[in-house]
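Problem 12. The chain below contains 373 residues. Write out its predicted structure in token notation.
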Amino acid sequence: MAEARRLRGHKATATCCIASRDRPGLVATSGEDGCICWFDMRCKDVVLTMDLGVNPISSLCFKPGNEDIIYVSSGLEVKCFDVHLADAWKPLESYNYNKEEINQIACNSKSSFLASADDDGDVKIIDIRQKCLYKTLRAGHTSICSSVQFLPWRPWEVITGGLDSKLVMWDFSKGRPYKIVDFGMPDMENSSSAGQCLNPAFVHAIAVPEVDMLEKSGKICVVARGDGVVDVINIESELAAAQSKTSLKPQKGSKSKSKGSVSTVAETLNQNGRKRLHLDYSLGGHTASVSCVAFALFGERGKSIISGGNDKTVKVWGCSRYLDAEQPSSSNDVLHLNINLSKKVNWLCTTPADSENLVICDTTKVVKVYTVS
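Solution.
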């Protein structure tokens, strides 16, 4: 692989990166220096630096349909900026609903709601059209909520991951979970293989495909786990199993009915018709905690999954065809590319371009860009 291009602009560790869908080659990165740096891959140097203060920036997301608007989380606060407005960087909106540090923010595909996941295990759903708090999602996680994503094909549903090793699916219109996958429960079929790291299966990051990727990817969720595993879960199969499980339970009055509405499972591939892929060390996977996952915007959108980890590697997986078949038997089947780095990976994103299409934030202030063909 060719040597990485280096993007310089931050004065401290880069924490997050996002790539424009509308303008290929435009990338925004955030850092512990409280800055957002904008890079155009056609230009040598940083195009624009937004200095937003001294607090580290934990997460970024564009407003779908209008990428001139960017949402930024820092500390307990979410701010909204128009990148074309004056250099003072005064936010258009500011939301202070989280009581603990925010780990990730996400905007739904219709640009009507924003979710912010925090250290308390709570997720705030903000109505960004009415500019108010819509719902607090609570009691799904017993520890830090590290990650959140809206499901683009289910307009009232959101999925979260936490350091309690749980993946929680919510109906945010009702404010309650209806499905919990607990990766911390004993799991004989998918037990760690020899060489797999022994860290807890904390959920550090999740990724779901965009609507235009579904034909290639299916309606799945990709989970970055603390034990080095990347799990690929067929959401619709999980939900169908949860609903059939719920319908089989006796329902005596409203109380038992509400209890039966949440299904907690640790079942594995092919039980009750579910499909899960378990991309672990035996398939060439990570040997330390996986910190981030993303769907590739390059090539056939949604066909490849990218993961980065604390083992200083980034891996490109091609696993869409296995969701309707058996677990792959070797890394030759599913691991398409392994990139060795010199530092642990904080975050990564991809661009729709044919070159310079993989952007990596590691534990330094210099952002690296690779070409994956």
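Discussion. Residues 81 and 291 are 27 Å apart (CA to CA). Students who got a different answer should revisit the alignment rule from Section 12.3.
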